[in-house]
Amino acid sequence: MVIDTEALSARYRKASVNLDEKQLLITNFYNTQQENDLTESPNCRGFGRVRHFRRSSSNRWLSNPLPIDPACKALDLPETDMIRAQVFQSAACNWRCWYCYVPFELLAANRKYSDWMSPSRLIDLYLDQPDPPPMIDLTGGQPDLVPEWVPWMMTELRERELDLQVYLWSDDNLSNDYLWRFLSDAELELMASYPNYGRVCCFKGFNAQSFAFNTGAEAALFDQQFQLMKRLLDIGLDLYAYATFTSPKKDDISSEMKHFVDRLQAIHENLPLRTIPLEIQAFTPVQDRVDETREIATKNQYFAIEAWQTELEIRFSSTQRAESIADILL
Fold it and tell me: pLDDT tens for residues 163-206?
């Protein structure tokens, strides 16, 4: 059954935000399947977790500088291969990517696994721990079902004079236009001018077929991802991208990847250099979802990453490819 993205987005937004109280549903990791995959026990009374972002992935994949390099640049930290982040996870998502490391029951605005939290309360919990991480990661789910979350957090950090000490990072699956539909011009300007903020947007596939296979959404929404990315860039955000390359078919991967990179460059010539493909690995929730087709798709991502590397080598010099992702101009 194909997901009705617009309807599900509206449903989950209504269920996961209280505008009058300035609250949203945040996952509590205690007694969830996801807790089993965490390398450290949940913190912040179960509403947070510390993630160690590492540059290395596996010997079959490219290194991942996100969000390490943008955070280190913003905070004037020395170059490193790992950075700690305080993660808060929204409790709803409008897509169901089969490889998502979050159990689907934690993506349905389920009050059994979440509770109402305000930005003020989240920052209180963040500060009430020894050695808080230097960055806060707003993830999901799809955080942009409640696009107010980011400017709310920015305002709270600024009021506590933490805006220059803490790096704020948020995820976006490029599934809706809620940023423009629900935020004021002043909130958009705050996001654009806030010094220590980066946003990463995830392209769910390299063509319409792989997109639909990965997300469960209408294939036509693959095109919308590029349109939304362009609008985000026009705001003036410090913008980065992920891409997932799992696909049920490997036919014409080279030509399809060429077209994908063409479309990234149609947004900005340098966008491919700010785009990091993610290796899909089998976290606990994923194992029960993997059938024969998805197993093949997992293998096909390694053909796709080779095609990706070839395209970047053709289009960019070795000097450009070696530059820090945070120094690439958009």
Answer: 999 999 999 999 999 999 999 999 999 999 999 999 999 999 99
The mean pLDDT of the chain is: 97
Instruction: Answer yes or no: are the C-beta atoms of 197 and 240 closer than 8 Å.
Output: no
pLDDT digits (tens, 9 = 90+) for 241-298: 999 999 999 999 999 999 999 999 999 999 999 999 999 987 778 888 999 999 999 9
The pair of structure tokens assigned to 109 is 């605005």
Q: CB 14: neighbour CB atoms within 10 A?
A: 11
The residue behind tokens 């796709």 is 304
Two tokens at 98?
A: 């089969």
- Strands of 239-244's sheet, edge to edge? 49-54, 82-89, 135-139, 167-172, 197-203, 239-244, 275-278
14-19 mean pLDDT: 98
> Whose CA is closest to 75, among 164, 138, 197?
164
- Helix residue ranges per DSSP H, 139-207: 149-159, 178-182, 185-193
Full domain range(s) for residue 188: 5-327
CB 125, CB 45: distance < 8 Å: yes
CATH number at residue 83: 3.20.20.70
- Structural domain count, the chain: 1
8 A C-beta contact, residue 185 and residue 223 = no
Which pTM does this prediction carry? 0.97
> Residue 74 has which token pair?
């913003």
**DSSP-assigned states of every residue in 245-307:** ---S--TTHHHHHHHHHHHHHHH-TTGGGGEEEEPP---HHHHTT--HHHHHHHHHHHHHHHH
Per-residue pLDDT of 26-43, as tens digits, reads 999 999 999 988 989 999
